[in-house]
Amino acid sequence: MFERLNTPQEALNYKLGATLKMEQKVLEILDDNIEHAQDGKVKQLLSSHREESEKHVGNVEEAFRLLDWEVDDSSCPAIEGLEKEGKAMVKKTDDALVDSVILQGALEVEHHELGVYENLLINIKAMGRDDVARLLHQNFESEQGALEKVRALQAEVAAVTPKQPA
Ligand SMILES: [Fe+2]
Q: Could you tell me if residue 164 is inside a domain?
């Protein structure tokens, strides 16, 4: 990849590589959390988002090909940080509370992913590549759907928290 980014195309190419790294890392995060989740509904939601995320990886790779760029990843320290924080929280947390912690981590990851796709879409549209934008918009919409499901399940899990007197 590039030493320095000197054109909008190089910057976008690099960012698309970081997106590929992000989606690959998300598969590992989901695998880890599926293993640690206690509730069947949580496991199920994470597993179905894992399937969607595999499709996201394929779409990002296809975006490289449509742009005639070599499929190559770039570093993405943000997702590594989210992974590290999530793992540390799961390790610290009692099994009775771990589903909430896992879903909180998932919600934060979804927001990060949505920000990444939002930026990509702005820059790809600016390049006049609506074909690539349409492809990556599928990932954006899928992440939005996942965020809503994670949010709803997180609220359901949190609802059993004993009320704290004022
Ligand atoms: Fe996601």
A: no
Structural domains in the chain (count): 1
**Cα 162 to ligand 1 centre (Å):** 30
90 inside domain: yes
- Give the CA count within 13 Å in the CB-facing half-sphere of 89: 20
Measured in Å, residue 5 CA sits from the centre of ligand 1 at 27
The alpha carbon of 30 and the centre of ligand 1 are apart by a number of angstroms equal to: 9
Centre of ligand 1 to C-alpha 8, Å, is 26
Contact (Cβ atoms closer than 8 angstroms) between residue 102 and residue 86 = yes
Position 1 in a domain: no
Structural domain of 71: 8-158
CATH of residue 25's domain is: 1.20.1260.10
pLDDT digits (tens, 9 = 90+) for 13-37: 999 999 999 999 999 999 999 999 9
Residue 79, in any domain of the structure: yes
Burial per residue of 128-149, b for 16 or more beta-carbon CB atoms within 10 angstroms, e otherwise:
ebeebbebbbebbebbeebbeb
| pLDDT per residue as tens digits for the range 77-123 | 999 999 999 999 999 999 999 999 999 999 999 999 999 999 999 99
* Ligand 1 geometric centre to CA of 146 (Å): 6
* pTM recorded for the entire structure: 0.95
Residue 55 corresponds to which tokens in the numbers above? 């499709």
